[in-house]
Structures are given as C-alpha cells and as structure tokens.
Amino acid sequence: MTCTYSPEVIDKTITFHGHSCPGLAIGIRAAEYVKLNFSDTNPADLVCVTETDMCGVDAIQYLTGCTYGKGNLIHRDFGKSAFSFYDRKAERGVRLLLQPDSRGSDHDELALLMGKNSSGDITDPEKKRLSELRESIQKRLMHLPLKEIFQSQELQYSPPRPARVLQSLICESCKEQTMESRTRRFGGQTLCIPCYEQVEQKI
To answer: Would you state the CATH architecture of domain 168-199?
Structure first.
C-alpha cells in the first residue's frame, strides 16, 4: 500500500521540515494512520504524545495539527520511535511503535554511515552510498502497508489533561517571570530552575 497522501501534500511536508529523509517518512505514515483511524476526531480533541524528537515529529505537527504551542503535542524523552494518539472526547487512544524490521536490512549500514558523516570521517564513495540508502529506505517506508511499519496498541488509560494557564512568579534571584509550575523553593526564596541549580549543591 502506497502512502495515501498526495505528492503535493508530501512536498509541502518536506518543505516544512527542510529536507526529505527516512525519519520524516515515519512521521508521515504515523500521521496517515491518524487520518485513516481518527477521521471523525475534531482536531481540537486530538492529542499526540511522542516518545522521540526525531524528524518525523515535524510531519506529525504539519499533517495532524498537533503542535507544542497548542499543548496537544507532548514530548516524553524516552528515545523510542513511538507515538500515542488520543481522542479526548471519545476517550480512546492508540500507541504506534515502529517495527524494527520496517526499515529493512540496510538500516544498520545507514546508521554507520550517518555516524561517519557526522564525525566528518566519511569518504566520497560512502557519501554516495549514504544518499542511496536514505532514498531506498525512505521509499520503502512510503510504500509498506501501515501494519508492517507500526505495531499498534489500543490504550486503556485517559488522555493527558488539557494545557492550563498558570500564574507567573518572579524569580527572586534573576527577577525574571517564570511559570509557577517551573519554580523551586530554596532558602525561603522562589527561584527559577536555572537559579535553583546554581545554589542547590546536589545538582
């Protein structure tokens, strides 16, 4: 099954992210799952909890409307290629976990070459091979059936609560306004996290 998004939509997603890559393809296919399985969900009720900050999160933001600014995109830094989507009104959710073999047998070689590219130790032939691998793995991800890309798990617990507007307090050290939930008390003072870390000896 080829991705059901039109080439125009995919091109706009690539433009939004800045480049085309396998990671972005993963996010596009996750967003496609939402399009097909949460089609009746009001965008205001849709929430995404991502367990990674990889390229695909940009595709999810662009294609589903779940964004950090609206508070319906939540990042939990677990380092896993997993995305949970919730319909707050219907109180249902699903977690999508990337299948290890969805990227094919060339993924280990891709990871090795990407590491060499980052460190500047890559040769010109290796750069060419890296480009070929990125393109082939991306193409694979865009054509596989969704069930071969993600393991899906229905979630039984309630979705994250909506974002709340909290009071801002003045840090008594730097004098900057800080969201109440991000302040700390130390030595009888209200401090922002950076100022707290400067005086707390255990950190």
So the answer is: 2-Layer Sandwich (3.30)
